[in-house]
Each structure stands twice: as C-alpha cells, then as structure tokens.
Design a protein that fits this description.
The protein is α+β, with helices and mostly antiparallel strands. The chain has a single domain (14-382), classed as Coproporphyrinogen III oxidase, aerobic (oxygen-dependent coproporphyrinogen oxidase, 3-Layer(aba) Sandwich). It has eleven helices and 14 strands. A hairpin with a 4-residue loop joins strand 7 and strand 8 (133-147). The longest helix has 24 residues, at 81-104. Residues 1-18 have a biased composition (Low complexity).
C-alpha cells in the first residue's frame, strides 16, 4: 500500500532505538521531499532513508487477554482527533468483520489483542479458509513513538541545519484490511485509513506540531464484471464528491500510479482511490472524509461478493485467479514500501505477510488469448480505464 494496514493489516510496528535512550524509537512521517509514512497494513515505513533503516529494530508486542476501551494514554482527551479517529477505526473494524462473517455464513475471525511498552496497541483479526474467504485480515493499531534527531534533520533539511533537536514524539493510528475470496469471480479488496501526528522537537522553539491523513480502497478482480467495477468506483467517487469534486480524479490516478508492478508494466488491479501526506485541508474535514471512506467499504464491496461468491467456475478460471494472486504477491513483496521495510528490519513475519493470499500460482511465459476474458482483465491492468 501500500499494508498501511498494517496500522496495515498487521500487528507489528517498526520502531527505532537510537542511543542513549533505552526505549525504542520510530521515525515519524513527513510530507513532500522526504516522506516517512507508516504503512497501516504492516505497521512499518514507507520511503525510509537507508540511514534510518540501519538503526531500526523491532519492539515486540505484549499479548493482552481482552480489548481495552481505548489504546490512548490516560491523559488523552476524548474530544481530540486522536480519540475520534481511534473510535472510528474500531467501529469500522467491527462493521467490516461482521459483514465478512455474514457473507461467509459460518467462519469467524481469530482475534489477537496486543499492546506496546511505549504506549498504544492494536487488534488483529484474521479469518482463514472459510466457505467464501480464503483469507481475510482486518486490523487496527494505535501507536506512540519517538523519531530520532537524525531522522528529523533528514526530513527537514536546511531548516533544521542550525538546530540540534531532541527526540520528536509522534502518534500514529490506522485500520487496514486485505480480503481474498475463494471464487475467482469475486474480487480481492484492500483498504487502509490512517492518521499521524508529530509534536515539536524538544529543543526547537516554535516548531509546529504536524499531522497527516492517508489511505485508500482498491479492487483487484481476476475477471471483469463491468457493472461491479462501475459500482465500486461510483461509491468511491460519491464519498469523495461529498468533500471536494477534485478528490476522486486526483486520488483515482494516485491509486493507479501507486499499485503499479514496474517489472510487468501493469497495475495490480483495477484501482480505486489512494492518498497520502494529506494535510492541506481543514483537519475536521479530513477526519470526516476518512470516516466517510471507511464507512463506504461495506456498501462498495459486499454487494459484489454476494453476487459472485456462489457462481460456478472451472479449473482454468481458478488457475487464472491464482496467476493474478501471484501478481498481488509480487507487488507486495517487491514494491510495497511497508512490506519491504518490515522484512529488512526483522519485523514480525505473521504481521508483515498477513496481506498475502493462502495460494498463488506462477506459470512460465503465460499469455492469455487475445480477446478472452482473461486478456480483457490484463488489458485493463496495463491500460487503466475511467469507470465512472
């Protein structure tokens, strides 16, 4: 995700431990020139400088017996953006999981609750090998950390050259999910929504607190049912249009560009919306926008699943789905910045790889017959289309 979710569909969060502090630290997220982004699917980083990666270690989570009312620290205000965003993502997790279980008709989610010594925690839920779902992960996290001084100076460039800032506290929370159905006519869905804040460095007077929103929802089918894709994109557009008519075309293109498998010269799927570094609008508006997007997941996706989950299919159609799942794996392991960072820094493997399907397939030099339904899907992944 791009894996946020962890935060991307995982329970592992990557933290940094610069000397001399004994507590693990985490580089924060800065916009524009040096973008540090926590991936909500994998609770790790997007676009991290190599110097930051070299000092990264993993702070292990502590299993908890039950869900707390909040993962926020005791001094947090219930009216803060942090608190309201956490409330939103936890309600969204409950709503999506209930819809997934209802569509499956029998399987239930396994839940892991965890906390971290530095504050925060998360709830990881995975449903595996059900009647409808091969694998479905829906995770939330709330994490506190501290960005080391060298990461702050790298991000701020010349503006920080004359300062020697202390550690920069940060806060990050998010929901992330990847849903892989069994039926090749039922599409995979990925979504994640996240919120970040940084506080002023301890010894840089007047440095502002900064915040950002990020996220998106995208569809990855093996076969194109045009009415399904149009419905999905129309729901994304409707959510965007409630706030700004430029959002959908802008975030649709961003999604097409991000989920691009360079070595294949094709997209992972048929897109949706994706955005990052978003802080150039009113904060309350963006909180409402992220909430609207998260609440749009079920109406955008579940009607498609209900129509396609029981359609009969052939072995050849299942094999094609598995080939497209192979593309999904390739993108996540080669290009998704959160996944690759987590693997390089020794993160919790179960959390990092929760977004991957149970099964996938690679055939040597496979080429679908031109004009076939498989070819139509591949063509749409190579040449992104406007669906609404």
């Amino acid at each position: 995700m791009p894996p946020p979710a962890t935060l991307s569909a995982s329970s592992s969060f990557t933290l940094l431990s610069p000397s001399p502090s004994p507590k693990p630290k985490f580089p924060s997220f800065f916009p524009k020139r040096h973008s540090f982004a926590i991936n909500p699917r994998h609770h790790s980083l997007h676009s991290v400088p190599s110097s930051t990666v070299r000092c990264a270690v993993i702070e292990k989570e502590t299993p908890e017996a039950q869900r707390p009312d909040t993962f926020l620290r005791a001094n947090s205000s219930s009216s803060s953006v942090r608190a309201r965003f956490e409330k939103m993502i936890r309600e969204a997790q409950d709503t999506v999981c209930a819809a997934i279980e209802a569509a499956d008709g029998g399987a239930t989610f396994k839940e892991d609750v965890w906390s971290r010594p530095g504050g925060g925690g998360g709830i990881s839920r995975v449903l595996q090998d059900g009647a409808v779902w091969e694998k479905a992960g829906v995770n939330v996290s709330v994490v506190y950390g501290v960005m080391p001084p060298e990461a702050y100076r790298a991000a701020k460039g010349a503006a920080a050259a004359d300062h020697k800032p202390g550690p920069v506290p940060f806060f990050a929370s998010g929901i992330s999910s990847v849903l892989h159905p069994k039926n090749p006519f039922a599409p995979t869905l990925h979504f994640n929504y996240r919120y970040f804040e940084t506080d002023a460095p301890q010894d840089v007077p007047g440095a502002p607190r900064q915040w950002w929103f990020g996220g998106g929802t995208d569809l990855t089918p093996a076969y194109i049912f045009e009415e399904d894709v149009k419905h999905f994109h129309q729901v994304q557009k409707s959510a965007c249009d409630k706030f700004d008519p430029t959002f959908y075309p802008r975030f649709k293109k961003w999604c097409d560009d991000y989920f691009y498998i360079k070595h294949r010269d094709e997209r992972r799927g048929l897109g949706g919306i994706f955005f990052d570094d978003l802080n150039d609008y009113d904060q309350e508006m963006l909180l409402s926008f992220a909430t609207e997007c998260a609440n749009s997941v079920v109406p955008a996706y579940i009607p498609i699943i209900e129509k396609r989950k029981d359609l009969p299919f052939t072995d050849q159609q299942k094999a094609w789905q598995q080939l497209r799942r192979g593309r999904y794996v390739e993108f996540n392991l080669v290009y998704d910045r959160g996944t690759t960072f987590g693997l390089k820094t020794g993160g919790r493997i179960e959390s990092i790889l929760v977004s991957l399907p149970l099964t996938a397939r690679w055939e040597y030099d496979h080429k679908p017959e031109e004009g076939s339904e498989e070819w139509k899907l591949l063509d749409a992944c190579i040449n992104p289309k406007e669906w609404v």
